[in-house]
Write a structure and sequence with these properties.
Layout lengths: L3 E3 L1 H13 L11 E6 L8 E5 L13 E6 H4 L4 H12 L15 H5 L25
Parallel strand pairs: 2-4
Antiparallel strand pairs: 1-2, 3-4
Length: about 130
């Protein structure tokens, strides 16, 4: 049984975010793999990985991967998923391969939303609306 798969919907969502959010406009989409993990049960909803020090770098030209954990996100609204992918994209550096260290505080600082944004039924802004471009 396949438990992790590439996800084109996540890639498309990332493309929309990159086009609308100045602070992640540097991300080159062809340098990022997007996966949906259907089996893992981590505490995080998603993670960003750098391949700089990983043997997988010999099998792909991509330098980063974003893995979304279905266990934690299967109830997410499209708006919540956009915020999650935006957060993961912010880990990708403008130069080099060392991930940018930041945390969930950017949800409140950059997006001005509560830290419980990922809870079922949470109402969050649609960051893909033109009037919310930063």
């Amino acid at each position: 049984m396949i438990t992790i798969q590439e996800d084109e919907d996540l890639r498309e969502l990332a493309s929309q975010i990159i086009a609308r959010r100045e602070d992640v406009a540097h991300v080159e989409l062809d340098q990022v793999l997007f996966f949906l993990d259907l089996a893992s049960t981590p505490k995080a909803s998603a993670r960003c990985y750098s391949f700089a020090e990983h043997p997988i770098k010999f099998f792909t030209r991509a330098r980063f991967a974003i893995v979304v954990y279905d266990y934690r996100t299967d109830y997410f609204t499209p708006e919540q998923m956009a915020i999650l992918i935006y957060h993961e994209l912010k880990h990708i550096p403008k130069r080099g391969t060392k991930l940018v260290d930041h945390n969930v505080k950017d949800f409140s600082e950059v997006l001005r939303i509560a830290l419980d944004w990922a809870e079922p039924g949470a109402v969050v802004p649609d960051i893909l609306k033109e009037d919310q471009i930063k």
